[in-house]
Amino acid sequence: MAKEYDLFQHLQTHVHGPDDLEKSERHVVFAQWIADELLPSTAATRRGRVLDVAGGKGHLSTALLEAGLHCALIDPHAVTGRAFHNVPPHEAGDRDLDGIGDEPVVVLRQTIQQVLSTWPSLVDSCLAVVGLHPDEATEPIVDLALARNLPFAVLPCCVYPKQFQRKSLCGAGVRKHGAFIEYLMEKDPRIRVASLPFVGRNTCIFMAASDYQRPRERARKPDYNPCALAAKAGDLPLLQELLQKGHPWNAEVCQAAAWAGHLHVLEWALLNRCPWSWTVVIDAATRGKHEGVVQWASDFARIPAPPTTGREASDDR
Asked: What dihedral do alpha carbons 79, 83, 86, 90 form, nearest 10°?
């Protein structure tokens, strides 16, 4: 019981399970992270807006406003707010921003590419370009930000491998979420990654203003395989030895241990702050047919095992 209590206490303090934050609250988490982590140096003298690309129903824009940030929701299918929309191509050109200067949130029912033609000064003066599961707009957000040295943060979701024939630097096709993350990060070696505390696709790739000042040197890619293989084998002493020697680990450790059914490795990794995702653990244990691990993870995370078919919907923007 003492061991279970310690594990529970660590979970409450350090690990955010899916039940800690409802799906609808991910926008609040992301918005606060943007204010605290992506834009901390601008807190005292903030001017301009955060561009919420593919913001859909405006949940993230609302959360950004509550975090003290003015923003522009850019989405041709936006369903909320005041709209400055669909400027005809023959009228394209920079628009006067004086009339919207005091509006805390403005909505442009256009694509980000159209906004570049119609409202270039809005882009040039923005604080950052962000997107929460922006689907087809994910790569354009990154490309726009890198081209103009703008801070950005995006949480990729759907890959659309049939629609976009992407290739990584090694020539491999980009079909899975993890490969999509790596593909985007290959665009600039200074791009960083963070895991935000909510259920689902919570990997955020970003660059703050200060990151553009760093030398553009491609860092050696960390090798997570040794720790993941040790976890898959259930060899906890080897995993501990690898970590002591400085080998990196990531969520592949909990995924491998769950898939192989090694509960003792999972318990130790959780207590020792392994990068963690309850969704990954439950899904891997389900695929590995380890009902005991599924039950253990479900009890802690207080969610059922994920469905075996279909993909996560991304209509929660």
From this structure: 180
- Residue 1 corresponds to which tokens in the numbers above? 């019981």
DSSP string, 152-208: EEEE-----TTT---B-TTS-B--SHHHHHHHHHTT-TT-EEEE-SSSSS-EEEEE-
Taking the mean position of all CA atoms in its chain, how far away is CA 240? 29
Structure tokens at 312: 């996560």
The CATH number of the domain covering residues in 23-213: 3.40.50
Tokens representing residue 97 in the block: 């921003």
Distance in Å from the first CA to the final CA of the chain: 41
Rounded distance, CA 157 to CA 203, Å?
Answer: 9
Q: 91-105, 134-148, 164-178, 211-225 — which one is most confidently predicted on average? A: 134-148
- Per-domain residue ranges for the chain? 23-213, 222-301
Give the predicted TM-score (pTM) of the model: 0.62
Contact predicate 119/85, CB 8 Å = no
Query: For the chain, how long is the longest CA-to-CA vector?
Result: 71
Structure-token pair, residue 83: 């709209």
- Other CB atoms within 10 Å distance of the CB of residue 62: 21
The neighbour count for residue 211, using CB atoms within 10 Å, is 15
Q: Do domains 23-213 and 222-301 have the same CATH topology?
A: no
Query: Which helix (H) or strand (E) is 113 found in, with range?
Result: helix 112-118
Out of 1-15, 20-34, 62-76, the most confident range is 62-76
Q: pLDDT exceeding 70 applies to what percent of the chain? A: 73
CATH code matching the domain that covers 222-301, chosen among 1.20.140.10, 1.25.40.20, 3.10.450.350, 3.60.20.10: 1.25.40.20
Confidence of residue 127 (pLDDT cuts 50, 70, 90): very high
